[in-house]
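Workshop exercise sheet. Pairs work together: one partner reads the sequence aloud, the other fills in the structure field after running the prediction. Swap roles for the next sheet.
Pair: D.N. / O.F.
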Amino acid sequence: MKTYRAALVGTGSISEAHVRAVEATQGRVVLEAAVDLDAVRVADFARRHNIPSHYTDYAAMLDAVRPDFVLVATPPSAHRPMSVAAMEKGAWVLCEKPLCGSLAELDLIQAAEDRTGCYTACIFQMRFASSTAHIRRLADDGLLGRPLVGICNTLWYRDAAYYAVPWRGRWETELGGPTMGHGIHAMDHFLHLMGDWKEVRAVASTLDRQIEVEDVSMAIVSFANGALGSIVNSVLSPRQETYLRFDYQRATLELTHLYSYTKDNWKMTPVPPGQDDNLHQAWQSFPPDVGSTHGAQLCALVADRDAGRRPLTSGDEARKTIELLTAIYKSAFTGEIVKRGSIRPGDPFYDVLHGNRAPVRTKGPGPAGG
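Structure field:
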């Protein structure tokens, strides 16, 4: 079995998760290079993790190392150009969220995929836990019935110190607020289980943080299968929680966690006792537990490359989620109900997520939140 050579770009806090992900492949992926603009930081990172080479110039690294995989963990505004450049050199890319800053940028990524035969997958690790695969099987086998109602809440807290980092809180560099940069994980997971979305109506505002982007958004989503869902994304919530709820015809499934989960974070409430014993037995038959980690997703990406197939969170699957986020912004900033597939070239929201509009800023009573 081939050993794949990888380069990690960006050595900030999330880079440690990528190192653990490489370790989870049990030798199938080896880190050959690290890249960061900060020469001291990247040298220290490479030394601590026994990485053979380190660079401050991304293009020079691509030419010198020719990696099989590039793991992109930089601030968001660099994601699209770095992903395209890596594919042009023959590498597959695993890129941190948000994958890119607009549907126009996503089209550039997909054009590069078509041109090079390589792929860029977004880090949506919530999809890759074994418990989620188990639930998908229950749903596909008809044991849960149809999905009817869904809830997707990302209720997090980010203070003034968090937004003191220069690239955060700005459309140009962070690409959005909690809709794009925080709730994106839960929303992708939500869509993975609820199915294709059809239309969305939303609101967004900057209630308390002194930032360009929104600090809260809320949306109502209609799904192609007839189900309805509600979404809340917040960075103003001191008691932090990520909460997903799925009300199917035969059971309610709930997932409560913060940044990652295992099967123990799930809860099932079936229809009244005795009505569906088969479901209860099937629910208990979890496969060996794999959590929602970067490692789980990287192992899946290795299997995809072995097989020469498109990764799960690339292409149309990535588009489904990014298009929903774009539609939330458009609905929030225009007051329109936005249908899937309606944001196309010529629409200002196709080129930039905020459509060149700012979120509504609301001044509430009491002290400012930063």
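Discussion prompt: The two ends are 52 Å apart (CA to CA). What would you look at next?
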